[in-house]
Design a protein that fits this description.
Keywords: Ligase. The protein is an alpha/beta fold. The longest helix is centred in the first third of the chain and has 16 residues.
């Protein structure tokens, strides 16, 4: 694929794209050769709907209108390219809790033609140092509450500009709104806009490079055609902006639609329910665990403003979907996405939803199930999920590119079944299949059976090596408050699962926990359950 002439003075990111023959096949959505996604999300939305609509809000401050947000973004962009010395193509690390200011910094980096590297506030110095080394980061905008760990990373020549404090070098002093508008850098549609890093829980993290057109593509496919937001919607959710699920759901999608977003860190199910009522949230993005955690706390909370609930990040069990629907009348929009493809690529909404399945390929994407050699498998047979569409995997100078992209398809690492009518049903992560006494057992199927028991609030099922059976099915369970973690409960849970799944799939061992290990983005860390050392 031939790239358009770049507007980047610093060509580090483009120079480290994989060779073209290692790219996935990419669908052309017809974007112009040059576009700046920051300008499209902000300036173009204002031109279409006006500057006085609410854009961003949080718990502590006033609502920012679109016009006020643009004024602040332009002031930050002037500071970036003026006193801070950022040039187009430079990588700018963004770190902090989920706030309007963090979103404004991201938009300013886009308009300035730099490359955003948004990281999690929970990441520790060693992790931050690795990310900065891989992406050659020399500039950072950091919430003053999250500066210490970033400074402690000891990144050579890193210029950290804090925001939210009262120091003379604080970004709020450098970027006071009210000055001249900032003309967005005329970036190429295929200039790198952001580098999103995978969690790195199983090795050195991988930087996934996404273009300016990719940012618009996720809004114009999943959001516009499946989620279908309206300008009066108020978005909110638990995923942080350092997680592409959160960046899309809480910044890109609402701004593309002219809607608003309530930005706050995850404070637990009780606080999220309170926020829904207080701010009349209508579009909610969170993980299956959060929906399940909110269920027993719904009484006394007003969720009548909700009209769209989106779930991703891990598999949504049919039990959780059904329980939420019975309690609220709302149909959760399930979806699977990946950092490598930026956001959701299989999903379904409204009457097209089929509980227990992920859904259909999002318009613009194609999906199929293949074997290890990449050969398509017949419907009903489990295999590897392969996807292609307008976005796809382009790792930053990483040999693992050829593992993820094969023959033009992104191989996500998930085991799926395609049903005869085209729906895709999740089976397990490819490395989460348990082989016990010759049987292939999908951990999520056992989890779904356990979660149907009223005393189970969380469940994770993994395989453990066994001399006689190859692997044993081991269930790690969090119980409802007040339920005793004793032998009687083990027996009751095993008997219950045998009424719902074949006996050979039932857990041979059940281990009780007060909480399951998760990443800062809420993803279950099964590897820690397999090897608890």
């Amino acid at each position: 694929m031939e790239l358009r002439p770049s507007a980047h003075a610093d060509t580090f990111a483009r120079d480290r794209l994989p060779p073209p023959d290692q790219w996935p096949h990419l669908t052309d959505l017809g974007y112009p050769d040059h576009l700046n996604c920051g300008a499209e999300l902000l300036d173009a939305t204002i031109a279409r709907l006006g500057p006085d609509r609410p854009a961003l809000r949080d718990a502590d401050g006033p609502v920012w209108t679109y016009g006020e947000l643009r004024d602040q973004v332009d002031a930050i962009a002037h500071a970036l390219t003026g006193p801070l010395g950022v040039e187009p193509g430079n990588r700018v690390l963004l770190r902090g809790p989920t706030t309007p200011w963090l979103a404004a910094c991201w938009l300013a980096v886009m308009k300035a033609g730099a490359v955003a590297v948004t990281v999690l506030a929970a990441q520790r110095p060693e992790e931050l140092a690795t990310i900065c080394d891989i992406a050659r980061v020399r500039f950072a905008l950091c919430d003053v509450r999250a500066v210490d760990d970033l400074a402690g990373a000891g990144v050579p020549e890193l210029r950290i500009t804090p925001f939210g404090g009262d120091g003379p070098d604080d970004l709020r002093r450098l970027a006071r709104p009210g000055g001249a508008p900032y003309p967005a850098v005329p970036t190429a549609a295929d200039d790198v806009a952001l580098i999103a890093f995978t969690s790195g829980t199983t090795g050195r993290p991988k930087g996934c490079m996404h273009f300016h057109r990719d940012v618009l593509a996720i809004a114009d496919t999943f959001s516009a055609q499946v989620l279908r937001p309206e300008p009066d919607d108020v978005f909110a959710g638990s995923p942080p902006l350092g997680f592409t699920f959160g960046l899309g759901g809480l910044v890109i999608f609402p701004l593309r639609a002219g809607a608003s977003a309530y930005l706050a860190d995850w404070g637990g199910p009780e606080r999220l329910l309170g926020d829904i009522a207080a701010h009349r949230i209508s579009v909610l993005f969170t993980a299956p665990t959060a929906y399940r955690a909110m269920l027993p706390k719904l009484a006394g909370h007003d969720v009548s403003s909700l009209r769209r609930c989106v779930s991703a990040g891990e598999n949504l069990s049919a039990a959780t979907w059904q329980a939420w629907h019975e309690a609220t009348g709302l149909r959760i929009i399930n979806g699977i996405g990946a950092t490598e493809l930026l956001h959701i690529f299989i999903s379904a909404a409204d009457e097209a939803i089929r509980p227990g399945t992920t859904g259909l390929p999002v318009p613009g994407f194609q999906a199929r199930v293949v074997d290890a050699a990449g050969t398509p498998l017949p419907d009903g047979e489990p295999g590897l999920l392969a996807v292609r569409g307008p976005t796809g995997c382009r790792y930053l100078a990483d040999a693992r590119q050829t593992e993820y992209v094969r023959d033009g398809w992104n191989i996500t690492g998930d085991t799926y079944v395609r049903e005869p009518d085209g729906y895709f049903r999740y089976v397990a992560r490819a490395d989460d299949m348990i082989i016990s006494a010759g049987y292939n057992i999908a951990g999520p199927e056992v989890e779904d059976a356990l979660l149907r028991h009223p005393d189970v609030t969380e469940a994770a099922v993994v395989g453990r090596a066994d001399e006689h059976r190859g692997q044993l099915v081991v269930a790690h369970v969090v119980l409802r408050a007040g339920v005793a973690p004793d032998d009687a409960t083990v027996a009751a849970l095993r008997a219950f699962t045998k009424t719902r799944i074949a006996p050979y799939k039932c857990p041979r061992e059940i281990v009780f926990h007060t909480a399951l290990p998760r990443t800062p983005t809420g993803k279950l860390q099964r590897f820690r359950l397999r090897d608890p050392r």
